[in-house]
Design brief:
Helix content: over 70%
Number of helices: 5
Oligomer: single chain
Number of strands: 0
Distance between the termini: 55 Å
Order of helices and strands: HHHHH
Length: 124
């Protein structure tokens, strides 16, 4: 039980720190109107054919920050818990990061597609 509480504590600390850093980084980019420099938003726009005129970039930074913080902190905490050699931890972490990125951004992208679908796609 102590092990679980210690791991949950570290997960929470990593999550909060990464969320704060990433949130303020995205907020800074939006204040400078550098929309194209936010890679996650560009990926979602291209993959789900979103209409950029309808997107509210300010509302997108919180979910993106939360997803990235969760991906990084969960992977780090999970991999540190494994009693394996470091090479195996790195390989598992690498696979886990890609799986979480794909899954979470796919879910969020489908949500955005329902909300902000471009007119071209809706007519077809």
């Amino acid at each position: 039980m102590e092990d679980f509480l210690a791991n949950f504590f570290w997960f929470s600390i990593f999550f909060i720190l990464i969320f704060i850093v990433y949130f303020f980084l995205l907020r800074y980019k939006l204040k400078k109107k550098k929309y194209s420099s936010i890679g996650e938003v560009g990926y979602l726009i291209r993959k789900f054919s979103l209409d950029t005129r309808k997107l509210d970039y300010w509302k997108m930074i919180i979910p993106i920050s939360l997803m990235n913080a969760f991906i990084i902190s969960f992977t780090a905490t999970f991999v540190m818990m494994l009693p394996l050699e470091m090479i195996w931890q790195l390989m598992i972490g690498f696979v886990l990061v890609f799986a979480l990125i794909y899954a979470l951004y796919e879910i969020y992208g489908r949500h955005l597609a329902k909300k902000y679908r471009s007119r071209k796609k809706m007519e077809k």
